[in-house]
Amino acid sequence: MRITNTRMSGTTRTRRGLALLIASGAGIGSLLLGAVPAQANDTTKQVSADGRTVVFATSDSSRNVSGSVEFTVNADGNWQITGTGHNSNLLVRTIHWTCDLTWDAAKVSHSTGKKAVPGKKTRTVSSAAYDPNIQADFADIADRGRADCDIVIG
Question: How far is CA 97 from CA 50, 62, 120, in A?
């Protein structure tokens, strides 16, 4: 028999330890489930007066780098992404923007090139090209299109 000064048997200590473990797990689990997940900001959509251009605008942040972006699509199939990135860190971070454009059951993704952003600085990054899918379905994009743009670190 083992001598202890707690005046508890081994079985009692084991049960109390198990109860403490379960209570701790339940507390941490409820904290994690109750936490609100990070959400991207809403994307605004603006169709030009002549109906030939749609601009999606939003902002996003990731790992202390934040910025805003405009994703423009034109009836001729040309698109452009122009975004900024402000690095709140001390070290250089490489960023780029990725935009997913969806309408009906279709989806296209486009992104900017990568750009290094020194610590405590802001940089602008942009990219433009032609996409035949945008040109073919531009009327549907203007009516029901949605864009989700995210800043990507690395």
Answer: 28, 11, 19
